Amino acid sequence: MENKPLSPHIQIYKWHISSLVSISHRITGIINILAITLMCIWFALILFGESNYEIIKIFLQTFVGKFILIGITWSFSFQMLSEIRHLIMDLGYGFDLKVTKITGLLVIFGSLILTILIYLIGRGLN
Amino acid sequence: MAQISLPKNSEVKKGKYFEDKTGSKNLRKVNIYRWDPSTEENPRIDTYEVDMDNCPSKVLDILNKIKNEIDPTLAYRRSCAHGVCGSCAMNMGGKNGLACTTPHAEIDGDIDIYPLPHLKVKRDLIGDLDGLYKQYQSIEPWLKNNSTKQTTEIYQSKEDRAKLDGAYECIMCACCSTSCPSYWWNGDKYLGPAVLLQAYRWIIDSRDEERKARLKKVADELKLYRCHTILNCTNACPKGLNPAKAIAEIKKMLATANV
């Protein structure tokens, strides 16, 4: 009788906005830690000379480089908005199912809009 | 560490196919998780073609129809059929709920029916809830009053009574706890939404004198703080309760009170 099977769980459970935002919050958290580490290395390299700066600049202007930069911008935007959502929830607000749906959608679309905004501001400064 | 995949003995295989014998034109395919403890075989998914012209509106009606007319070996729990007893909690169309209150019209395409997620299966749709009941017992879900002299009832104001609304209606069907990924990965330690909602119900009861002790007991990294507001619980609750909010309220009490 010890051979009882375990019923299926994550394989069958339906996703909804709150669970998607929650898992994305974790994933972007991990990405951000890696991103911050990477940025520290970049800045440290700049300290060691101008040629390093040039190499990094060339890399960041490639397709892969741009993808990484925009990806990190989105990841930070998402993490920030989602964290605000969680902070409000920690205060005990926003648990109504309809409200969680709306705030979840706000986080998802807000992070995309924020990414575009930051991108445009960055271009304007250039 | 969370184990995402199912263990070898739990992998689900394709099962039997029961073709319709009524000649009905209005058929729906119903896929049901089956496991027979008397064999060494893995669980399987049996598919039934069900005549929807002669079937009432709820998922439980489909199960009853299958058991009565197609395959009497199907095992599932059910009792009141009115959303009060909580026996027929299962996973339908990827979401936990009570089979007796879930309309099959709300499920698109084929109807997939599984036992409540991440439980040891006893047979077919019957999951083992012993662990959850033990945890329920551990929060001591009864009124604690140290006065030995009181012989009359303990009064409660209307306001204090109103605080229990949204907590006392819980029928312990386990839809919420078994929908919670945190409970899947840490169910041995994390109390889960159902039990924490009940913990909350006794913490806020004005007649209870053990509030501080109750709070202290539940204030634990694993017992309480494994809740990451995924909100599967609130989405799953067939009684429309909000365990996630109750857990947040307990966290808030612990953050503000000197326990």
Task: Kindly summarize this structure in a few lines.
Chain A has four helices and no strands.
Description:
The complex is a heterodimer of chains A (126) and B (259). Chain A is mainly alpha-helical and 126 residues long. Chain A contains four helices and no strands. Chain A has one domain (17-125): Fumarate reductase/succinate dehydrogenase, transmembrane subunit (3 helical TM bundles of succinate and fumarate reductases), CATH 1.20.1300.10. Chain A has helices at 17-47, 50-60, 63-90, 97-125. In chain A, helix 1 packs antiparallel against helix 2, helix 1 (17-47) crosses helix 3 and helix 3 (63-90) runs antiparallel to helix 4 (97-125). The longest helix of chain A has 31 residues, at 17-47. The mean pLDDT of chain A is 93. Chain B is of the alpha/beta class and 259 residues long. Chain B folds into two domains: 8-127, Beta-grasp domain (Ubiquitin-like (UB roll)); 130-256, Fumarate Reductase Iron-sulfur Protein, Chain B, domain 2 (Orthogonal Bundle). The two termini of chain B are 30 Å apart. Chain B has eight helices and eight strands. In chain B, strand 7 (121-123) and strand 8 (126-127) form a beta hairpin. Chain B is elongated and about 70 Å long. In chain B, the strands form two sheets. Chain B has a six-stranded mixed sheet, with helices on one face. In chain B, strands 7-8 form a two-stranded antiparallel sheet. Classes of the chains: A mainly alpha (126), B alpha/beta (259). Chains A and B meet through helix 1 and helix 3 of A and helix 7 and helix 8 of B.
Mean pLDDT score of chain A: 93
Major sheet attributes of chain A: none
H/I helix tally of chain B: 8
* CATH hierarchy: architecture of chain A: Up-down Bundle
Q: Which class of the largest domain in chain B in CATH terms?
A: Mainly Alpha
Number of domains of chain B: 2
Cα(first) to Cα(last) distance of chain B is 30 Å
CATH C-level of chain A: Mainly Alpha
Named CATH topology of chain A: 3 helical TM bundles of succinate and fumarate reductases
Q: Which shape of chain A, going by the Cα principal axes?
A: extended
Spatial arrangement of strands, main beta sheet of chain B: 1-3-2-6-4-5
Main structural class of chain B: alpha/beta
| CATH homologous superfamily classification of the largest domain in chain B | Alpha-helical ferredoxin
**How many domains, in number, for the residues of chain A?**
1
Q: What's the β-strand tally of chain A? A: 0
Structural class of chain A: mainly alpha
Low-confidence stretches of chain B: none
Question: How helical, in percent, are the residues of chain B?
Answer: 25-40%
